[in-house]
Amino acid sequence: MRADAFLEAAEALPVGSLRDLVPAGGIVVVAPHPDDESLGCGGLIAEACTRRIPVRLVVVSDGIGSHPNSKTHPPERLRDLRESETLAAAECLGLSPDHVAFLRLPDRFVPAAGPEAEAAAEAVAAAARTCDAGALFVTWEHDPHCDHAASAALARRARDLLGDASLYAYPVWGWTLPPETEIGEAPRGVRLAISRHRRAKAAAIAAHRSQTTDLIADDPEGFRLEPAMLAHFARDHEIFLDVAR
């Protein structure tokens, strides 16, 4: 199935509730970078927190690849900034900083296999056990970013370690795939209605100021989320794709 047809079908998935996705237990959101959690799962996190369903957020990479040439924000300072932005975003969504973990794997070089990947998968599984998680949520394996694909792989491994948890994928950069890209079978999953959390989600995304504003202005190669990209995440629903075993 082509990417354009797949994503169109994903936009037409049935609307469901959080408990349609996770009948029991808490949830773990796995974000390759600081900000992916707000973009792809901001509404999910806010809905879970509103319903007092336990949430754990695991941020995989250190996020320092967004502005590699900045003199004002060398790697350690940029890492600390992006982590503080993530904690501010979590607060916007109702999530306690105590429930956010940073693995600090190298941005742009998150391993999909090997000892570091195994340790990351074990960290995700450990977070899941602290909230009796019924489901994990991670970026889509077809997102055209190596860290997103690697995070999807380590989340699959974490599911194997847990044994009985469900796994769902949320597209982030998948919306930018060339239309003719072959994806595979038609999507299965749920569209989660998040209209009542749109304001909180927008605030969470805006909390990532290094990615949405000119806060870091001295790197001509610095990354910034463009309005066209942000528009995908300002909708009344979030898409969660069922990841088969």
From TrEMBL:
<dbReference type="GO" id="GO:0016811">
    <property type="term" value="F:hydrolase activity, acting on carbon-nitrogen (but not peptide) bonds, in linear amides"/>
</dbReference>
<dbReference type="InterPro" id="IPR003737">
    <property type="entry name" value="GlcNAc_PI_deacetylase-related"/>
</dbReference>
<dbReference type="Pfam" id="PF02585">
    <property type="entry name" value="PIG-L"/>
</dbReference>
<dbReference type="InterPro" id="IPR024078">
    <property type="entry name" value="LmbE-like_dom_sf"/>
</dbReference>
<protein>
    <submittedName>
        <fullName>PIG-L family deacetylase</fullName>
    </submittedName>
</protein>
